[in-house]
Amino acid sequence: MLEIAFSTEIKNIMTKKVRVRFAPSPTGPLHIGGVRTALFNYLFAKKHDGDFILRIEDTDQNRYVEGAEQYIIDALNWCGMPFDEGVGKGGDFGPYRQSERKELYKQYADDLIASGNAYYAFDTAENLDFHRKDHEAKGKTFIYNWHNRLKLSNSLALSAEETQAKLDAGEDYVIRFKSPQDETLHLKDIIRGDIKIDTNILDDKVLYKSDGMPTYHLANIVDDHLMQITHVIRGEEWLPSLALHYQLYQALGWDAPEFAHLPLILKPTGKGKLSKRDGDKLGFPVFPLEWTDPKTNDVSRGYKEDGYFPEAMVNFLAFLGWNPGTEQELFSLDELIKDFDLTRVHKAGARFDPDKTKWFNHHYMQEQHNDILAEAFKPTVDEKTGADIDLQYISMAVGLIKERATFVSDFWDLTHYFFTAPTSYDEKASKKAFKEETKAILSEVNTLVNGIEDFTVENLQTEIKGWITSNDIGFGKVMMPLRLALVGALQGPDVFDIMYMIGKNESIKRIENVMATL
Ligand code: GLU
Questions:
Q1: Cα distance between the two ends of the chain
Q2: Which atom of ligand 1 lies nearest, measured to the CA of 233?
Q3: Partners of 277 in beta bridges
Q4: Is pLDDT of 518 > 70?
Q5: CA angle in degrees (0–180, nearest 5) for 123-124-130
Q6: Ligand 1 within 6 A of 58 CB?
Q7: What is the rounded CA–CA span in Å between residue 206 and residue 224?
């Protein structure tokens, strides 16, 4: 059963221009969960004539991975979700890379200190580690907050002079948010409704470090405010940060945007979150595009390179957490924009179904123009045949078999007989199709075929079918060996289509070939 929250109304769509952002950190390739987050942002923005912004959150330089930013941009473009503002594109609210906005954040950290909402903390890593271990040994968890902050090394515990002296001496510090004691916060989430949080369980999160870099929390809310973001749509893993973010908006005297935390994407078993590592283990890609790790050179599969159409990917991602409330499953991007509704996103985890992704791809394969598919297939055909095969011919072959295909990589197995004569005949099928009288029948068919001047599908059909009926032979006795002669197996589209495609001479040659083996 899906859990759907209809309760929460969305306010800002009525009063302000909708502005949403996708804010990935360039720490590696974008997981499909990230692409789903981008998609829901994109759909929401476009549905409400709003802006979709790409902001790169690269304040954690230790986790920066070369090439990840470009990968994110390429992935969004491949999916057909171009952003209106962002890195490489510009806009009125730039720069859109947090590392380039570095100077901007300090003043807000200072404001928070001045208003008594934040404080300097000088605790060394060793000291904090000591407290952590000490608590663990007593079966407790160390939380840096109201209940012990006065026993630690910070500007709340030290005098103003002591604090200034430490700052003047250039001691390492962080700026922490001062989480209130004994308060209940009422948070709102479009998908989850009202959430109550007891502030006593919150820790005093680090907002700023003495290396001049803000942490995710500070940079994120400052940027969302300055970029006039109206709706924050992001993964469930950020829900625990919501209380702090609300409090930061309040402390800075800003209106908070509305929030929607999307459900987790679960493994196909339904147990546990689908992780970056699952792809290789479970046999399907978890990334939109192929990714080569710049350090190890390990290659991870991508949907694009595995032969998926972006339309299929967008369609299956849309259903990870959302449904239209009807039976309709096939949605183009435009249809999604029209029907997408954030209040129909459910909060229960969405199970990933790799078979369903194939079902979608099969559908979008049928919608593709044969010429486009032929272009993608041509390199394989040319390589297998060692020739430069006419694109129009490949396109016709593709048109005859694509209803049986899910990927372009399925094409060769389904079409090889259009390009090369069979060199062997399926054993089981031969037993079924080749009878005593087969050779004599095929010999007569060959004579008949030879006599057809205008070699069209219609003429072939009329002549051969007419001949079968007037001689009262039985269709199977003729059509089965004929198909085996042409294809090498009892597969493929209509026999007359195949004969027309390969032409008169080749048809005759293949019938003769099989007769020689009988
Ligand atoms: N930088 C965060 C991420 O990598 C963004 C979270 C958010 O959207 O607030 O997912």
A1: 60
A2: 8
A3: none
A4: yes
A5: 95
A6: no
A7: 18
Compute the distance between CA of residue 28 and CA of residue 396 in angstroms, rounded to an integer.
Answer: 41
CB of 40 closer than 8 Å to CB of 34: no
Ligand 1 atom at minimal distance to the Cα of residue 21: 8
- 1-87+217-366 maps to which CATH number? 3.40.50.620
Per-residue model confidence (pLDDT) at position 2: 35
**Class for the domain spanning 105-208:** alpha beta
Instruction: Identify the sign of the CA torsion 375, 380, 381, 383.
Output: positive
Q: Is the CB of 236 under 6 A from ligand 1?
A: no
List the residue whose alpha carbon is closest to atom 5 of ligand 1. Answer: 23
Pocket of ligand 1 contains residue 26 by CB under 6 Å: no
Indicate the residue type of 120.
Y
Q: Which ligand 1 atom is at minimum distance from the Cα of 234?
A: 8
CATH: 1.10.10.350, 3.30.565.10, 3.90.180.10, 1.10.600.10. Which one for 427-517? 1.10.10.350
DSSP state of 144: -
| Ligand 1 center–CA 42 separation, angstroms | 15
% of the chain with per-residue pLDDT over 90: 92
Quick check: pTM over 0.70? Answer: yes
Q: What is the pLDDT of residues 183-211, one digit of tens each?
A: 999 999 999 999 999 999 999 999 999 88
Q: Which atom of ligand 1 is nearest to the CA of 25?
A: 4
What's the DSSP call for residue 31? P
Of 486, 371, 504, the residue nearest 419 (C-alpha): 486
In our burial notation (b when 16+ CB lie closer than 10 A, e otherwise), range 407-416 reads ebebbeebbb
| Cα 299 to ligand 1 centroid, rounded to whole Å | 25
Verify whether ligand 1 is closer than 6 Å to residue 25 (CB atom): yes
Residues 396 and 449: their CA atoms lie apart, in Å, by 22
Query: Distance between alpha carbon 404 and the CA centroid of its chain, in Å?
Result: 25
Active-site annotation, residues: 276
Q: What is the structure's pLDDT at 4?
A: 31
CB distance 190 to ligand 1 below 6 Å:
no
The residue count for the chain: 518
Taking CA atoms only, the protein residue closest to ligand 1 atom 10 is 24
Contact by Cβ (8 Å): 490, 480: yes
Tell me whether strands 85-86 and 184-189 are parallel, antiparallel or unpaired: unpaired
**Looking at residue 156, what DSSP letter applies?**
T
d(CA 83, CA 46): 10
Mutate to test the pocket of ligand 1, among 220, 227, 236, 261 (most ligand atoms within 8 A of CB): 220
Is the shortest distance between the CB of 238 and ligand 1 below 6 Å? yes
Question: Does pLDDT of 105 surpass 50?
Answer: yes
